[in-house]
Amino acid sequence: MYTSAGIRYKTQPESPESPESFPMRPESPTGLYWSMHGEVACAAHAPTADDPRWAKEDWAPIAVKDGQIEEMRYQYQCQHCAPDGRAVLRFPK
Ligand SMILES: [Zn+2]
Q1: At 53, which helix (H) or strand (E)?
Q2: Whole-angstrom Cα distance, residue 59 to residue 39?
């Protein structure tokens, strides 16, 4: 008799993580997404649409990457990629 111990099955995991496939996630014109918590992430770091976080945290594409509030210019960036970990860059005029 054989037991299954030590036998490796070469099966793929249920959710293949391919950078090419982001099922159902709307395309972002800026390549950035944000959540209702103010988290900003790029396509690689934002949850995919089939991730429970996508709906739970209300993620959406960021339509415009930068802008200006009065005298202050700002620009969104992926806080996971950013060396300083900030979601918003500010440029004092
Ligand atoms: Zn990123």
Answers
A1: helix 52-56
A2: 9
- Dist. CA 71 → ligand 1 center (Å): 28
Q: How confident is the prediction along the chain (93 residues), in pLDDT tens digits per residue? A: 555 555 555 555 555 555 555 457 999 999 999 999 999 999 999 999 999 999 999 999 999 999 998 889 999 999 999 999 999 999 876
Q: For the residues of 57-93, what is the DSSP string, one character each? A: TT-EE-S-SEEEETTEEEEE--TTTSTT--SEEEEE-
CA 77 to centroid of ligand 1, rounded, Å: 8
Structure tokens at 58: 């209300």
